[in-house]
């Protein structure tokens, strides 16, 4: 590791659980973030500042004035620009040493492999159930680590799925089929700091996974910022799941 990086990441390296070896792992990790809304903006900032090796950003949306309330990568001059290019510009000014890949793309079952095949970790920050199902199925089949988050109103949730583990549930084990349901924030209320907190938790779960700090324990964490309540729910594989119970 170069002297400049030893200084830049010194506060990570000083943590005994991370150390130089852990920071090296972070610096060689290949991560994809799908969806550059509030969660994706927040998670991408901490992953960029932490020095992940490659960070791929996937979204096909354009920045709207109403996004600025919570999508902290963007500024007033970015309104009407494509999210991906504005995000890449903003993140590269934070850390020029990491490889940023911008894909102006809506994920579908037919393009997901080409878009994500070189990445080992996927953060699902999307806003609709159909894309979440496609991402879940792809990560399950290719055994990628999937961290999923969502938020609405005052409440948010996140969880990590590790398909290297036989006992890991998949997204469809946890949620009933809501195909066609739009979880978009466009018309939904959302408390601004909530996406910062949930996105930061997603980045935290990912960094801990990369440096192998935590033992795998499938659980969903729900946060209610109105009352500051945190709830942990154990997640179990659904033996009748259409996707993951067949194998
Ligand atoms: Zn399943």
Written account of the structure:
Helix 4 (38-49) packs across helix 9 (192-210). This protein starts with a helix and ends in a 13-residue tail after the last strand. An eight-stranded mixed beta sheet has the order 3-2-1-4-5-6-7-8, sandwiched between helices. It has helices spanning 3-8, 10-13, 19-27, 38-49, 83-94, 112-116, 129-142, 171-174, 192-210, and strands spanning 30-34, 54-59, 99-104, 121-124, 145-152, 155-162, 219-224, 229-234. With 247 residues, the chain is α/β, with parallel strands linked by helices. It has one domain (3-234): 3-Layer(aba) Sandwich (Rossmann fold). The longest helix has 19 residues, at 192-210. The relative contact order is 0.15. The chain is 34% helix and 20% strand. Zinc ion is lined by residues 169-170, 172-173, 238, 241, 243-244.
